Q: What sequence folds into this?
């Protein structure tokens, strides 16, 4: 084993990023962040992807540790995340590959709708604000658990 691999060199970093992205939901999280081109808070991601907020939090933590997303600060209790646009090396290549993936149709529709409501309801503590749920239902985007 090469010294750089034992110490966490480029091949170990790439393997770590690919392992994190081996979970399809994490690919969806990263793809939505890339689509946004801006920060999104965990509650917005949970609403868009119809995933529990605790799971989004775990996914964001794993993506952050892999060097693919970063925390862009807090607004009250909400943490905002973005894909790392200025990444270099393996991370830039991974992000370019994920950016080329088509956004799932349902995710794309929920993304547009949720960001359209941003001015009206903004970030909310936890996903599922009644205005967001009502808007999704009106568009036939019922939560998967319903």
A:
């Amino acid at each position: 084993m090469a010294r750089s691999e034992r110490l966490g060199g480029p091949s170990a970093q790439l393997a770590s990023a690919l392992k994190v992205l081996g979970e399809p939901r994490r690919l969806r999280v990263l793809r939505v962040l890339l689509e946004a081109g801006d920060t999104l808070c965990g509650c917005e991601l949970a609403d868009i992807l119809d995933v529990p907020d605790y799971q989004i939090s775990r996914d964001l933590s794993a993506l952050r540790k892999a060097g693919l997303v970063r925390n862009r600060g807090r607004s009250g209790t909400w943490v905002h995340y973005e894909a790392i646009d200025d990444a270099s090396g393996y991370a830039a290549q991974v992000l370019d590959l994920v950016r080329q993936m088509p956004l799932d149709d349902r995710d794309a529709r929920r993304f547009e709708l949720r960001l359209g409501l941003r001015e009206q309801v903004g970030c909310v503590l936890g996903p599922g604000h009644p205005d967001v749920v009502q808007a999704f239902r009106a568009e036939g985007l019922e939560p998967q658990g319903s």
